[in-house]
């Protein structure tokens, strides 16, 4: 039984015992059922999304305060994923609840392809929420351009650790200091306004950490971190069954150790910020009815298969920390949820919690109900033709992963171009081979492929890419 099947779990369980009130329409956007009752009662939750940059799993050491709030007293999703392991596409999926092939931001150069009408901030703003954006937005967004549907923002661009330049509610200027701290302080001020402004609010909080160059705050620059001896995929002894770009990868365990050390040190400041945000909510009496998400926009390889980046269809790249808390609706108490979830589920969950019915299609599903997917589409596009890794798409379940690479890339407008020819494939048994060491399609016969169920997986992947 999934934790969300327990009695009383989720928004519907919480609202079942509430006094009935008349359903209402929220500022022109349809709301129905229990959520509408919640809206009419004036008890719509605040929404807080904390998004780190390039944070993989296995980084818990650096975030004990975050775990104390959102895991020990929230819900930990053990199978958290991103649908595209790259910054701008992933963030666009969070905002829209859509796959990158639908929202159009396939790479880091085309943020203006995102239809702002489809975003969760548009829905919330139109429904009377006070909206704020603090930190990194979308790669290649012009710093002088104001982000749509936000009332208050401090947009960091270019994204740096120290003494950054910010679009501060329409004025571009420099602000001295460590960017995680600057972003935290502005977030606290936004939340503090709730003491006098009683509208529900939405805050998107996005520090640079732990993205490269992984520069820690001065007070954490030399903090010792636990030793790490890698995992079986760091490095993989024999990569002859992998695509050529992985066979040619040259990064080592020492490279992975350096990246890990620096990432952990930068995350210590994020952890401090999360604690201060928690304390501010508690002081205002808003901790119970704030729906909080914490996740990374993608993972990162620490030398896995010789690779030190994201962008690849391997677990360290596509899996991320994924924590949720909403005590008023029963998302608390240290629950563990083993469903396959992804960044595309955040917008549908927020809208469900706020009682808003979207007027544009979404690929994700609300996490407040009992929906359980049996697989997830993950996709990634290369910006440069002929470069490695090739554009790829993958179908991932709890037990297996099938990946295809294509002769495709994105052009200057972020559109997909190329022949689409299939150039490589991988298949992994994630139960018996969790580190993805053995590509079972390497030198496999047609009969062996049929026994693995590859034809059905290939058909499923093609259907998902077209959905």
TrEMBL record:
<feature type="domain" description="Sulfatase N-terminal">
    <location>
        <begin position="45"/>
        <end position="356"/>
    </location>
</feature>
<dbReference type="InterPro" id="IPR006311">
    <property type="entry name" value="TAT_signal"/>
</dbReference>
<dbReference type="InterPro" id="IPR017850">
    <property type="entry name" value="Alkaline_phosphatase_core_sf"/>
</dbReference>
<dbReference type="InterPro" id="IPR000917">
    <property type="entry name" value="Sulfatase_N"/>
</dbReference>
<protein>
    <submittedName>
        <fullName>Sulfatase</fullName>
    </submittedName>
</protein>
<dbReference type="Pfam" id="PF00884">
    <property type="entry name" value="Sulfatase"/>
</dbReference>
């Amino acid at each position: 039984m999934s934790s969300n099947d327990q009695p009383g779990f989720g928004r519907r369980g919480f609202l079942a015992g509430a006094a009935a009130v008349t359903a209402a329409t929220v500022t022109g956007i349809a709301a129905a059922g229990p959520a509408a009752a919640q809206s009419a009662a004036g008890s719509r939750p605040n929404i807080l999304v904390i998004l780190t940059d390039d944070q993989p799993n296995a980084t818990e050491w650096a975030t004990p305060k975050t775990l104390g709030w959102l895991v020990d007293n929230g819900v930990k999703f053990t199978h958290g994923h991103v649908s595209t392991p790259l910054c701008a596409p992933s963030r666009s999926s969070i905002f829209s609840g859509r796959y990158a092939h639908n929202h159009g931001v396939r790479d880091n150069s085309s943020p203006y392809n995102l239809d702002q009408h489809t975003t969760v901030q548009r829905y919330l703003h139109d429904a009377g929420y006070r909206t704020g954006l603090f930190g990194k937005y979308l790669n290649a967004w012009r710093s002088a351009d104001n982000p749509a549907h936000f009332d208050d923002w401090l947009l960091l661009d270019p994204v740096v650790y120290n003494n950054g330049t910010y679009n501060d509610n329409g004025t571009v200027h420099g602000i001295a200091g460590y960017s995680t701290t600057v972003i935290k302080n502005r977030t606290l001020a936004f939340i503090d306004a709730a003491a006098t402004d009683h509208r529900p609010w939405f805050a998107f909080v996005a520090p640079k950490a732990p993205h490269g160059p992984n520069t820690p705050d001065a007070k954490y620059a030399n903090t010792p971190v636990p030793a790490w001896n890698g995992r079986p995929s760091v490095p993989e002894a024999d990569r002859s069954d992998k695509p050529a770009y992985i066979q040619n990868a040259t990064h080592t365990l020492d490279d992975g150790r350096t990246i890990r050390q620096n990432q952990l040190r930068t995350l210590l400041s994020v952890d401090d910020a999360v604690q201060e945000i928690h304390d501010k909510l508690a002081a205002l009496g808003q901790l119970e009815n704030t729906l909080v998400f914490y996740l990374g926009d993608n993972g990162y390889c620490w030398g896995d298969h010789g690779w030190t980046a994201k962008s690849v269809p391997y677990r360290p790249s596509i899996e991320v920390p994924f924590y949720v808390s909403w005590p008023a609706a029963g998302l608390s108490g240290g629950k563990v949820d083993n469903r396959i979830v992804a960044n595309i589920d955040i917008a549908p969950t927020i809208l469900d919690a706020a009682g808003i019915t979207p007027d544009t299609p979404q690929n994700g599903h609300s996490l407040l109900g009992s929906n359980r997917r049996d697989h997830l589409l993950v996709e990634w596009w290369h910006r440069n033709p002929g470069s490695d890794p090739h554009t790829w798409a993958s179908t991932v379940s709890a037990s297996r992963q099938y990946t295809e690479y294509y002769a495709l890339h994105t052009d200057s407008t972020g559109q997909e171009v190329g022949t689409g020819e299939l150039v490589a494939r991988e298949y992994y048994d994630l139960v018996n081979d969790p580190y993805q060491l053995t590509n079972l399609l390497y030198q496999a016969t047609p009969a062996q492929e049929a026994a693995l169920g590859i034809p059905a997986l290939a058909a499923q992947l093609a259907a998902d890419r077209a959905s």
